[in-house]
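LAB NOTEBOOK - FOLDING QUEUE
OPERATOR: T.R.
BATCH SIZE: 2
PURPOSE: Compare the predicted structure-token outputs for two unrelated chains run back to back under identical settings.
PRIORITY: normal
REVIEWER: second-year student, initials M.K.

ITEM 1
FIELD SEQUENCE / FIELD STRUCTURE:
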Amino acid sequence: MNSNPRSSRNQHMSEKILVFSIGSLGDTLMILPTLRALKQHFDSAPMTLLCDVQAGSNYVLASDVLDGTGLIQGVITYIVHKGKGGQILNLLSKAMLLIRLRIQGFHTLVYLVEAYQDDRRIKRDILFFKLAGIKIFIGMNGLEQRPVSQGLFIARVVNRADELLGRVAVAGIPVPEPSQASFNVSHTASEVAALKQWWISLPPDGNRPWIGIGPGSKMPSKIWPKDRFQRVVQCLIDEFDVWPVIFGGREDAEIGEEMAGAWGRGYVAAGALNVRVAAVGLRQCKIYLGNDTGTMHLAAAVGTPCVAIFSSREPPGRWEPYGPNHLILRTTIDCAGCRLTDCVEKAKKCLMDITVEEVTDACRVIISQTVRERQAR
């Protein structure tokens, strides 16, 4: 396997690069620093993103995030089917994808799929992309060992964004130092205007500071109880006179309306704004409070400090919001690293052990710091 890109940028100008990444909003945001490093290194070489689409889901698509960034020239998707007949449909989808990739003539693959050294899928993927005519492979060397699956002392791992940068650095591509990457999520004038148009259609907020709230998740094991969010935000309303704005997908709109009704104030952006306009709204927030979701990563990417409530299903570190100004709430538990989508046996004990008081105190720290910084200017 050839994993070394040519040293001269100009030699890449006519070579087509395929970047392979799967997942939804959070996964796509985590590859942004790597895409920027690739763009700078390969200069004018056209880059296309290859990603999956889950049949029947309403996940945010990679194109929804990357449109307008200038980092890629196009997106190729393949559909992943589940349920009865899914295996056959997936084989057909992969066969059609193979033909499409061969026709387009990609020269280099950048592999940004979550993987470890012992994963069998890597050999399978190498074979697939070689059959597609790809000659150079980047991102398949320098992979980590699979972390210890469970336990009280499960090891901390590097952030996903830094892990991906480290994998392409092995191939000689210059990357930022760990924890120093920039997501640089910029907004177009039309996106700023779209947020303003949505905003002025709603009751006035009295010029109160916004706080973003993300009470949902597509994984039940990650969802902190709604009533606890309500109690925390009510404390912040009473103490700081904030204006809550609920973010998320369409599935979070109903709970958002319930919460805003209980507070007697707030906006429900969940389901009302596309992801890039939501990013403009999140940038307006003084703080973001929410579960471990893609929306949390979006808030961090636009520079909004996060109070993030984490289950213990993953090793600490990997999916925490990127940057220095966030507070992470997570408990130690003997089943840490379970990777469960839904926790039935222990009824989400790791999340339930995080108290309203702890979360409220964390929010107070960040809000007070924001106030001090504003006064110092």
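ITEM 2
FIELD SEQUENCE / FIELD STRUCTURE:
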Amino acid sequence: MKKWHTVQDYLVIVFCACLLALSYHIFVFPNEFAPSGLPGIATIIQHVFHFKVGYMTILINVPLVLLTYFIVDHRYAVLSATFAVVFSVVLLALDYVNLAPFEYHTTTGTSTILAPIAGGVISGFCYGMVMRRDSSTGGTDLLAALVHHVRPEMHIIWIVFAINAIVAALSYFVYDFKIEPVILCLIYCFLSSHVGDTMIKGFKEAVKFEIVTDKPEELSAELLKHMKHGVTEIPAVGGFTHSDKTLLICVVNRHQIVAFQRIIQQFPGSFAYLSSVKETMG
């Protein structure tokens, strides 16, 4: 079973690397803007010096992977190296494939802004899927992991933000002193980060109710009967009356909120509040 999970991890990483490389050729390169992270810097170098992103990605990731392997974590480094290698190889191989029918560009009067939107969503999807496999897309992630290992007090988000800010600022000077490539870069960065964060946290959103009551047995029985969810009981004491109470904790689906409220109304004196749960496990 462990070997099968490992195979799954590699399959997901290879698929995401191929998908991201394809999105670069379809959405990024034809529209002349730099994406987020170190690949964005590699894209700028390609635009100025015509040195391909595929080669630049390998050069950037080799030292980072080696440092990560010996300093941070072996498995994390190997999986990240797999993504980086597949991404670079596919990126270079697609140079010899006629993707003109699929490339999105503005020569037909379409909106340029749709390119970073589509590319950012795909990037975020790939990033989230890879991160859920305890891996990374290389580049910025490896650099952030190294810095965080040496300086744990430094928040990784600021490292990523600094690199993206540099890419956005350079875009103005590289792409003929135009503000549009800067805006496209920022859109790509925002969507990639937002979608990636959503993928990592998951889609199993729920609601957690915490109820203070003096009728725990009756209320628990109603919740179990109608909601089909388990209830956890914790002894509590009222701060004002100092009387014995019970704190009930129950996690339900969002569409069950109204039904939950109807049950609570049957027990006057009970006090409940809810909070969002990003993901449920187990």
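REVIEWER COMMENT (ITEM 2): Residues 2-28 form the longest helix (27 residues).
FOLLOW-UP: none requested
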